[in-house]
From TrEMBL:
KW Glycosyltransferase (keyword) present: yes
Annotated InterPro entries: Glycosyltransferase_2 (IPR050256), MGS_GT (IPR054145), Nucleotide-diphossugar_trans (IPR029044)
Record carries keyword Glycosyltransferase: yes
Family: Belongs to the glycosyltransferase 2 family.
Membrane-spanning ranges: 141-159, 179-198, 210-231, 237-257, 269-291
Keyword terms, alphabetized: Glycosyltransferase, Membrane, Transferase, Transmembrane, Transmembrane helix
Name assigned to this protein: Mannosylglycerate synthase GT domain-containing protein
Organism (species): Durusdinium trenchii
Polar residues composition bias: residue spans: 40-60
SUPFAM superfamilies recorded: Nucleotide-diphospho-sugar transferases (SSF53448)
Region described as Disordered: spans on this chain: 40-61
Length: 711
């Protein structure tokens, strides 16, 4: 299976293997393999299992058709034309049966061996899953066998119609062979408009509903083959129309069915993904070998052409009806789990052993309450914690399935952890994802409910109630900058807890990441990426966020966030236009939301500023001349403070200057620490509402400077 995963990923919508174009998936795949997991099983399994025979079947798919095609070529070269015409189908069928028989060496030889294999695979399950709807092996085998029958019926119906239509057009309607070949081939192109219609309105029906619809369309198409109907249009045109309706409908119905078949094959200990694909191909081609002979036999069975045509039409109609019956007979074994969309909840961590268990239980409860129609995958992306965070996570009993991933390097950063979450989301074909900081102390299941209502948007940013002394990087740098750059009142662009669609996750992984994005710069990278691409964004109201204090790490955090911010806004023009509000998901709770008191000594920021200046003095002083028109650096060093108006000019300069990026970051961070100290002094005795108005004034100061600069 490892060979299979490294070559491509399975599309949930069809049964084809698509090449994996994203190299960022490789680390996710290696992490799954390190845990003994098959990444393919995450797409639609109810728990995580390992493939019990990873190497025995990896080279099997496609060998039967390959051998058969070589045999046809050899017969055509070595034998006379008439003899080759008679012997080729027999040789083809013989080779396919031989290939089918060779498959059995990959299967256990006895029921006892099946049981041993099943128990071995179950012993390799990662995580705790309490899913009462897990399907038994017998039920899975019954459904898979019905899918194999559907593949054979589709092959028979299409090949029979193709040959039978050609024969009727030639013998009954006098068409020339080159015209027949062209039109019959063109009927397959009808799959394009039907596939386009399906792509536009596929959300209107479930996968099972679409299979029934396409089967019904195919049955309707075969009705046009009967002789009494074909007389409605002259020249046999209705035969061509019948093929144009039946071919694409059967192909799409079988494609969706194979998708479901692969989902069950990932959980089956006997029919693996490779083996199921191989059997489907063999049976399909075997049926295609028989269909042309039987179709010609039916048409020539009577001296009356119309009777032969009706016999052929009845055979095709029966085949299409059997397709629908076989599907209905098999689908009753299908678990509702197999068609439920996947949601990934990412929990990046570093040494959060004290909090990870309670957080996991809360998130699991929220998923069970507010995502009843989805299958939730909890992903702990850990930065190689030294306190067994991942082990505690995996040992926590949950009803959702779980996966533990690790970054390549210890303490690599939150961004590196979330990259694993994004890759996992794409690999399992999840439609939506969320990330929640693992140091959260106040998260409740209602947080999951709030984010569950944001799934109509590509990106959901939090809008917490925050203490006036908390979130200084957001208040002083990020909030005013985002408002000036994009014209949206996005309050918490680096809040830490976000919702994102599959399209957004693809955008995050579209290009190589700068080093700072893999650390604290990830939040602003995500937010600016979706805004720059014009994706739909909303805000989710949340109660106060109580978490590990950021003040001890603000000295390292600020340069990383600022570096990514300046890089992301490098091509943006600051706007002084009217500020627009984003759609907002209101918080629903009966209880009061009080903001716990936070104490911050402004002198701490002054001390950080002095320490930061001492470490970067040479660089800062070397570039003071480039900003003399904005800031008197010497006076600032003496006063150790920065007022609101002066800070707005410094921030505008940093966002628009062409000076060396590293120097700009160091100057801006030094000024930020001083501005944060003065801001804390100014709002310390205010209420939280009054302090919020001060932050809004700071935002308007920058927008005013940007407007004046444009004028």
């Amino acid at each position: 299976m490892r060979q299979l995963v490294s070559r491509g990923k399975l599309s949930q919508e069809s049964h084809e293997f698509l090449p994996a174009k994203n190299p960022k998936m490789s680390h996710f795949v290696s992490q799954c393999e390190a845990n003994g997991l098959n990444p393919q099983t995450l797409v639609n399994s109810n728990h995580l299992t390992t493939s019990s025979r990873p190497t025995q079947t990896s080279g099997t798919p496609g060998m039967g058709p390959l051998i058969a095609s070589l045999a046809i070529f050899a017969h055509g070269l070595l034998m006379k034309k008439d003899e080759a015409l008679c012997t080729t189908p027999g040789a083809l069928a013989s080779l396919q049966i031989f290939a089918l028989l060779t498959v059995f060496r990959h299967c256990p030889s006895s029921v006892e061996a099946w049981c041993r294999l099943s128990s071995t695979s179950r012993s390799q399950v990662s995580g705790t899953t309490l899913n009462p709807q897990k399907q038994s092996q017998r039920v899975q085998m019954l459904f898979l066998c019905s899918c194999f029958l559907l593949c054979a019926l589709r092959g028979y119906a299409v090949a029979g119609a193709e040959v039978g239509t050609s024969m009727l057009l030639e013998t009954a309607y006098g068409w020339k062979r080159h015209s027949i070949g062209l039109l019959v081939s063109a009927t397959f192109l009808a799959s394009i408009p039907l596939r386009s219609i399906y792509a536009r309105i596929r959300s209107s029906f479930s996968t099972l509903g679409w299979i029934r619809i396409f089967s019904g369309i195919a049955i309707g198409g075969t009705m046009l083959i009967f002789s009494k109907v074909t007389y409605l249009l002259p020249g046999g045109l209705l035969l061509v129309l019948a093929d144009s309706v039946m071919f694409p409908a059967l192909y799409l119905a079988e494609g969706l069915t194979r998708g479901l078949m692969m989902q069950f094959a990932k959980e089956n200990y006997v029919f693996s993904v490779n083996l199921s694909s191989f059997l489907a191909i063999v049976l399909n081609n075997a049926a295609r070998s028989i269909a042309p002979w039987l179709s010609r036999l039916n048409i020539s069975a009577s001296d009356d052409p119309s009777e032969g045509q009706d016999l052929f039409a009845a055979c095709q109609l029966t085949c299409c009806i059997l397709f629908l019956i076989a599907f209905e007979a098999g689908v009753r074994y299908l678990s509702p789990q197999a068609v439920r969309p996947v949601i990934v909840i990412g929990m990046p961590s570093l040494n959060e052993a004290e909090n990870i268990e309670s957080l996991t239980r809360v998130v699991d409860e929220g998923c069970q309450r507010y995502f009843p129609k989805h299958r939730c995958l909890l992903v702990n992306a850990d930065c190689q914690s030294t306190d067994n965070t991942s082990a505690i996570f995996m040992n926590t009993a949950t009803r959702c399935q779980k996966l533990a991933l690790k970054t390549a390097l210890p303490a690599q950063g939150k961004g590196a952890a979330l990259k694993l979450v994004f890759s996992c989301m794409l690999e399992v074909n999840a439609e939506h994802g969320f990330c929640i900081d693992t140091d959260l102390k106040t998260v409740t299941p209602e947080w999951i409910r709030a984010f569950s209502r944001s799934m109509d948007f590509d990106f959901a940013a939090p809008r917490y109630l925050r203490h006036r002394l908390d979130g200084n990087i957001t208040n002083m740098v990020i909030y005013p900058s985002m408002c000036a750059a994009f014209g949206y009142d996005l309050r918490q662009a680096i809040g830490g807890d976000f919702g994102f669609s599959r399209r957004a996750a693809e955008a995050f992984l579209a290009h190589a990441w700068p080093p700072k994005v893999e650390k604290y710069g990830i939040d602003i990278f995500m937010t600016t990426t979706v805004l720059k691409r014009g994706y739909s964004v909303c805000e989710v109201e949340l109660p106060p966020k109580i978490h590990s204090p950021n003040l001890p790490k603000v000295k390292n955090m600020a340069p990383e966030v600022v570096t990514v911010l300046l890089g992301q806004l490098d091509t943006e023009t600051l706007k002084g236009l009217e500020l627009k509000s984003l759609p907002r998901i209101a918080w629903q709770s009966d209880g009061p939301m009080s903001i716990p008191e936070v104490k911050v000594d402004p002198a701490v920021f002054v001390g950080i500023a002095e320490s930061y200046f001492a470490e970067n003095q040479q660089c800062i002083m070397a570039h003071q001349a480039s900003m003399e028109h904005v800031l008197d650096l010497q006076a600032t060093l003496k006063s150790k403070s920065l007022d609101m108006a002066l800070w707005a000019r410094v921030l505008h300069w940093a966002l628009t200057t062409q000076l060396n990026r590293e120097a700009v970051v160091k100057i801006l961070c030094y000024c930020f620490f001083l501005r944060a100290a003065q801001h804390c002094t100014e709002v310390q005795e205010m209420s939280n509402e009054q302090a919020e108005r001060v932050v809004a004034m700071q935002r308007e100061k920058l927008r005013l400077v940007a407007f004046e600069a444009r004028e």
